[in-house]
Amino acid sequence: MLANKTALVTGSTSGIGLGIAKALARQGANIVLNGFGDSEGPRAEIAALGVKVAYHGADMSKPAEIEDMMTFAAAQFGRVDILVNNAGIQHVARIEDFPVEKWDAIIAINLTSAFHATRLALPAMRAANWGRIINVASVHGLVGSAEKSAYVAAKHGVVGLTKVTALENATSGVTCNAICPGWVLTPLVQKQVDAKAAALGVSNEDAKKALLGEKEPSMQFTTPDELGELAVFFCSPAGANVRGAAWNMDGGWVAQ
Ligand code: NAD
Predict the structure, then answer these.
(1) 24: closest CA among 66, 80, 68?
(2) Is 13 in the pocket of ligand 1 (CB under 6 A)?
(3) With a 6 A CB cut-off, is 21 part of the ligand 1 pocket?
(4) Using CA atoms, how far apart are residues 184 and 19, in angstroms rounded to an integer?
(5) Conformational region of residue 3, where left means phi above 0, alpha means psi within -120 to 50, and beta covers everything else
(6) What stretches of 78-148 show up as alpha helix (H) in DSSP?
(7) Which of 2, 69, 110, 234 has its CA at 20 to 30 Å from residue 207's CA atom?
(8) Pocket test for ligand 1, best of 184, 196, 220, 250 (most atoms within 8 A of CB)
């Protein structure tokens, strides 16, 4: 379905971003990976799906590096047809204890980077009259949780940016939607599982149950593969008139 299309997924060396990149690659899209850590493993996983893959290590907190990445992607594949703004970090602390540099980093990586990548991707999408911008927000774009001020502020911002991007392009073939996952067992959440295990003095398995039990009625983690299939739906012909949605996949978290 996505043969001859190119998808750039930020923060795709791990977790949800890698899951989405693989799902888009399974539909035939060429992939531009981004993110820190090992890039060779993810590159090989994508290449094994029979598509072309490139990697750019832009730090998404740095606008000049984002510009360089977008120029690189266009030079590699001609155009970015699908942009997935996924890179993100977390820090957990009460507001009065929240390190100022962590606030700045979370807003830069989780919110402002999506603005930069979107503004740089839109002209070519508009010229082609086809594009898909998918912002990985969170249930925390829809509801709050204590001790996550920067994250919740950034993710609510991402949901707002999603709506405005969708509206500004509503009469074109360019759509923008947000995905709002509940708990997904990635390195970002494993840190919170570890903290819970230490705080309660319980095992890893019991800490996972405690985390799910607080928020997620299904008592199951959403998986990167499931989120990848939602991204594929947004890219499909049936998704053409889904515009500005903030679609939760959260085991019932925000239904409560
Ligand atoms: P993860 O830690 O597994 O992956 C994060 C990715 O972002 C990695 O590839 C990392 O290298 C990259 N990254 C981090 N800082 C970066 C920077 N400055 N520049 C470029 N890349 C950077 O985490 P994840 O859980 O897969 O999170 C992905 C997205 O999903 C985030 O936006 C997160 O907020 C969101 N999300 C996660 C969950 C969850 O439960 N895991 C739930 C809702 C939303």
Answers:
(1) 80
(2) yes
(3) no
(4) 11
(5) beta
(6) 100-107, 113-128
(7) 110
(8) 184
Catalytic: 55? no
The tens place of each residue's pLDDT in the chain, 256 residues long, gives: 999 999 999 999 999 999 999 999 999 999 999 999 999 999 999 999 999 999 999 999 999 999 999 999 999 999 999 999 999 999 999 999 999 999 999 999 999 999 999 999 999 999 999 999 999 999 999 999 999 999 999 999 999 999 999 999 999 999 999 999 999 999 989 999 999 999 999 999 999 999 999 999 999 999 999 999 999 999 999 999 999 999 999 999 999 9
Residue type at 16? I
Query: How far is the centre of ligand 1, averaged over its atoms, from the C-alpha of 87 (Å)?
Result: 5
68 Cβ below 6 A of ligand 1: no
